[in-house]
Amino acid sequence: MTLDMRSLRKAADWLALAVVVSLPWSTSASVILIVLWVVAALPTLSVADMRRELLTAAGGLPVLLWVLAAVGMLWADVSWAERIDGLGGFHRLLALPLLLAQFRRSQYGPSACYGFVISATVLMALSWFYALFPSWAFAHVPFFEGHVKQYGVPVKDYILQSGIFLICTLGLLGAACERWRETRWRTIAALLCLAACFLANIVFVAAGRTTVVVAPFLAIVLGYRYFGWRGFALTGIVAAALVGLALTASPYLHLRVMHSFTELRNYLNTDELNSTGLHMEFLKKSAAIAAAAPIIGHGTGSIAEQFRLAASGDAGSASAVASVNPHSQIFAVAIELGAVGAAVLLAMWAAHVLLFRGAGLMAWIGTIIVVQNFLSSLVNSHLFDFSQGWVYVFGVGIVGGTVLRDADASPAASPGVVP
Known about the structure:
With 419 residues, the protein is mainly α. Helix content is 74%, strand content 0%. It has 18 helices and no strands. The chain is globular, with a radius of gyration of 22 Å. It starts with a helix and ends in a 10-residue tail after the last helix.
């Protein structure tokens, strides 16, 4: 029996779309769909397809980082179980060249973006429903009673939810900017209204602190990308005004921001064990741990052991807590693989930003995904987190492959054709 390559390619495309739709909702469903996607996609990719992607910075650097992590297991001074577990965080990077190769030839890249926005819109509507009618929802909807653990967060956690909503907000604003010169006012109004709903959910219902910090930066990037330096200055002013308005209009957001400052002050004064203090403590210890093995690090899987050795202070204080997560992607790599690994990580982000340097909505969506992941990863290890990591991999892979496909199809890409 021979495989029908055309049907298998279409199945792989639809499975990739299904993964994208499932990521905001279910870890278990995403795992199953990712495995099925790998099984379907691998037979459809030739050696030449993979060689082409691996020889590019966008496809090759993620694999190089995985190879460094695999080699890094050799000098880690921990058990092999911990070394193998440490390598697990890097595995998803191997999917990037597969997705780039797959969607370089597939026409379903834009459909994946639509599916992601639709999935996130349903989640956003459910979040608003629970936030506005919590008593009725708990009394009449069995789903809420069994799953909801936090106000306005139907599934997973507020950090992932607000991050996804931010990606959708900026993507919709970019789509509105793309249609600005076409004066398609009804479409623009609909896009802006939907973007406002996502943004309002972040401001009034559930916001990750990183999302609040990242949002103004992405807005400024949006202004520069579509309107140049004049847009850069204007969106900077508008973003600052909107942040001030949000802090005034939303008691929730104001309390969340001020509580972070209170936690920071208490940590600095008394070493109090709180969320902000732990972030600061982990970053401080991460810097010291990375400095102790600056070139090639302590080896893959060594993070937990290094934090156990660095724990100090009285029980119940921030300095006494040992962590398995430095809460910084750069430090998470630098502790294990030193400056060499951190340099490859930064080069990978840079390569992915450059992949999306062209014009068009798909290039803008790719830019959002990379910049949001980079900025949030300064204080989170999001590439090693399941949902955020796979959102990055599938986002860059699908959108990047689509951008490459469009570039290959452009007149400038054809030899002997004058653009």
